[in-house]
Amino acid sequence: MEKLLASKKLSPRWYERFPRAVPVGIFSLTMAVALLSVFAIETAEDRRQSALIAQTAQTIASGLERRSNANAAYLRASAALFATQQMVEAPLFRTFIRQLHLDGRYVGSDGIGWAMKVSRDDIPTVESIMRRDADAGFTVRPAPPPAQPYVTPVMFLEPDTLRNRRAVGFDMTSESVRRTAMKAAERSGQPTATGHVVLQQEGRPGGPQGFLVFMPVFSLPNEDGARNLRGYVFSPYNAQQFLQTSVDAGHLSGAGIRLYDQDASGLTLMAAIAPSEVSGQVIRRPMEISGHRFLLEIEAPATPMLSTMSVMTLLFGLLVATLLLVLARLLTQQAMEDRIALAWFEQQSSIRNSLTRELNHRVKNTLANVLSIVSLTRRRATSLTDFADSLEGRIRALSATHDLLTQSDWGTTPVAMVIKAELAPYAQDVHRHLDIEGPEVELAPNDALSLGLAIHELATNAAKYGALAVEQGRVSISWQMVGENLARIEWIERGGPAIDLETKRKRGFGTELIEKIVAHELRNPVDLRFEAEGVRCILLIPVRRRNDFAIRQGRA
Question: Side-chain half-sphere of 423: how many Cα atoms within 13 Å?
């Protein structure tokens, strides 16, 4: 065991020096890995969401463009037919349009209309013909200004509904946005869309936003190859209706859509489908309808703060981190306990060696005391019986004090216990008068042995010749501290037989033992007086610190 302990380094290892920081560090590191995993999952989820929104934006834009292209094809077909006619009359227009839309759908628009170019001077004639053949209330509105040479009123608009009748008679040339688109269509010969306008069908100036698509209709070329503009086939669009009919709501999955008119003045919101929850994640995609630029904005639906996979990863990471925290705490605690146990075993080994040395020392001292006692007793004894009795009493005194020291684990022993142990045989007699008093004072083992031997000799002498030999005798033992490290013990006998002067002059073995052996062991002189009232003895005993004599300092 000694070799094993010697080979072990008892200095604490790094993880033992930080028993709390190491588990917390492992927990923090594991949670950091879990959080990084969650971050990676959420990043991938955001990218997937962005890809889905981009795909949705592409699908919606394609759907809107397909609807507008299909309507543009109808406008081209109508323009080709009306270009061959001398006059576009109501029966012809309605028959053609109705045959064109056999299924009753107008692909997101409010229908198809005919706006004829009319000279300013021919306005009354056109109004008269329209009132007679088609619409009794037909009027070109608003009245053109004097400088305007012609007007382009809406002659027909199919389907013939109350909503569409509000637009009949309206002069398209009177409004700048419509006029600009019509001029562009005339130059290109292709369907051309306006910017945002409020359709006449809405019946109020501040109504919902919409737009129109114009297709110019020219007359057949004359001999010079020239063609004259006869009017426009057009389709009006309510932007909100156009957006809703072009988008499959089932594929939105809670996403929001906004349609903007993009012109020189900026962006103007024309229609919107609100998302289920606002997320702020927006994708914008420009699109073109009949030569005009629009902007489509898709807002992704709000998603939970953490996806299901992230929550599961976080919970799993928390569980693993907690388990590692507990395991690391147990391991560091066990390492600390093992180190403490090794230190304790090392200390016990040291204590055992000290005990062996101390026991050897104390046995030698005790044997030396015994030899001195035997030698002095032999010289003073008058008979074998006297020698045996004296020797036995002194050996018992040493034994009694040894018992006290053994009970205190060879530590400090109170003065009161030493005195009471030596006077125990005399305290049992009710006729004996013993007064023992003093403060709590602890003595070192060697000093306790010397005090016990001195008290034994004084008590034996008092029992034979002094105060303990008669009933009226009284013995008083008191002690007190007379210095920081020095106790004064006083033995006083009163009421005993008178002391003979011859006895006082003769020095017995007890007197020599106290004045020589005890004084030598206590390292202080003993004041032993034989007064007329009785024996008086003053002992000075050092009160040493525990470290000066203790063989064990307690267990770590």
Answer: 25
CA atoms within 13 A on the CB side of 30: 21
- Torsional class of 372: left (φ above 0), alpha (ψ -120 to 50), beta (otherwise): alpha
166-186 pLDDT tens trace:
999 999 999 999 999 999 999
pTM as predicted:
0.55
Report d(CA 339, CA 3) in Å as an integer.
16
Give pLDDT tens digits for 206-258.
889 999 999 999 988 777 777 889 999 999 999 998 888 877 766 677 788 99
Q: Around Cβ 267, how many Cβ atoms within 10 Å?
A: 14
Q: What is the CATH number of the domain that holds 531?
A: 3.30.565.10
Using CA atoms, how far residue 411 sits from 394, 399, 403, 448, 452, in Å, is 23, 16, 12, 10, 15
Residue 161 sits in a domain whose CATH number is 3.30.450.350
C-beta separation of 92 from 85 below 8 A? yes
List the domain range (segments joined by +) for residue 234.
43-299
In angstroms, the CA 126 to CA 133 distance is 11
Bridge partners of residue 390, in order along the sequence: none
**Three-state SS annotation for 287-353:** EEECCEEEEEEEECCCCCCCCHHHHHHHHHHHHHHHHHHHHHHHHHHHHHHHHHHHHHHHHHHHHHH
